Each structure stands twice: as structure tokens, then as C-alpha cells.
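I am still learning, so can you show me any protein sequence you like together with the matching C-alpha cells, please?
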Amino acid sequence: MTPSPRGPGSIWAVVTVFRPSGVPPLLAQLRTQVDGVIVVDDGSGPGFDAVLDSIESSGVVVLRLERNSGIGSALNRGMRHARQAGASWIVTFDQDSSIAHDFVDALLSASDAAAAEDVSAGPVVPEYFASVRQAGRREGASTVLAAHAIQSGMLIPVSVLDRVGDMDEGLFIDLVDTDFELRCADAGLPCIVAQGLALEHHLGARYRVRGPLGRVLPVLTLSTPFRYYYRARNRIIIERRHRGHGPRLRGEGIADRIYFVIAIALASPRSTMRRLIRDGRRDGRGEMTGPMSPELAAAAASVRWRAERLPD
């Protein structure tokens, strides 16, 4: 890695996986960019021991959770291990991400540039996450704040975790990174972007839509059905928790609600998707966190999409 005035300390990567089909190429890409790599398996089960053993044999630390505990829990477990290993910086990833050879250095350089301008900054994310641009307004001559931040590809100084705390494990999945980002902003440590830097990522499955909707949205990305429950629930929790960020969250909430209408239109059975979103909103209003009920999870597993899945 390129020498930097950022001070002593090591940089560790935390990569979360769930039922990986093989060794993620990301691990080899990280080998020369960080001091250590931790893979946290979020309860894949014994059927994936061979893949995890192969990862471990390459010198990567593998932490195996007994059950699926959600992205917040998996990240926290990995970050605690990294801190015990002496990390001063932690960069987090999903298994589906892919990075260039200078990715981590670019994140660190953006943090250094902000410090040189006396800009108090917290986490750093790439300007582009797949096709999503994360940049917002400029702060200083060369520092750009994030308009929103996705956790895969996020560089977090350990000092930020000391001040802000860990990820909220109760949110389980979806908007966990949004909650963390907003807590950082409220602590005076806003997330910034590394300008021009891009992270390749597989964003769900792509589908071709037939019929009247297909004339407007011929191809779109759809998530696994169970995630719509968490998206609906956590959206309400986040909106209530971070009222000071109302204008931004109202815009994001409107976009989510439009997406929910599309998901219902394409789901089979539609009644089950309506239930997932309705129950999610109800539980959000009740401030319920943690995993969904086994009954609701079973219902979500029965949903199929009325669309043609395209090759990855």
C-alpha cells in the first residue's frame, strides 16, 4: 500500500457471506490492499463447509455464525474481531462486490484529503456503487459528502465506531447502513466519497417485464421477496429515528413506496407480497426489530415473480 500521513495502525477488511457458491474473487483482490481479511459467514449451514474451509485455507480468518443473524450482526462480529487484531481502519464488503487494485488506497486518500482541509469526516465510500452514484454536495475544495451510503466498500475509522457505536443489529437487513451513516452525520462525522472511485456489485436479479408495465420498465431489478418486509419495516423505523433528516428520508420513502407498488404488481401471489409490506409497516410503527417470524418467512419463500429472469 502507498505510504500515507494517516498515522500508525492497520487496515482490515470484513466480508460478509451467505451461502457462497464459491470463493468470492473479492478475497484475492483484497490480499495486497489490506493487512488482514475476515470473512463472516452468516449462518449458511453445514452444506457450505467445503467453501468456507477453502477460504480459511488461504489464510483468511473465517467466523461462522450458527444461524442467520442479519447483516448488522455479521458486520459487528467481524469488526470486533478486526479491532481485537489491532485495526485502526476497517473496510466492509458484501460477497458480491469486486474492486480495482487501488480501491482501498483511494478510500484512504479521500480521508487524508478531508483531514488536510480540516473537514471532520467519518466513513468513506466510493462515488459509484454499481450504477448508483453516492456523491452529494461539496464540502471544501476537494471533499464531497455522500448523499447516501451503502456499506459494501465503506471504509470506517475505528475512532468513528468508538464515537458512534456499532451497526444496529435489530434492523437485521436493509437500511442498516443508512442508519449508521445518519448516526455518523449527527455526531459531526459525515460520510464522504472517494471521487471517481467505483465498486462493481451484483445488485439483485434482473427481470424482463411483459405486458403494460413492461412498456415503462422493460427490465428491472427485484430483490428476494422476504426483503420487502424488512425494507417496509425499517423505512418507518429510520424515518422516526432520524427526523432531523426529514427532506432526504421523505424522498427516499416515496421511491420505496413506488417500488413496493411495482413489487406487488409482479408478485405471485400478490396477496402474500401485500402481507409482507403491510406487516412490515405495522411492525415498523410498533418499533419491532429482529428477524421476521418463521411463519412470515415461510410465506415469503412461496412468492414468485411474474417476470422473466435474465442471465446474471
Summary: Residues 1-7 have pLDDT under 50 and may be disordered. The first strand starts at residue 10 and ends at 17. The chain is about 40% helix and 25% strand.
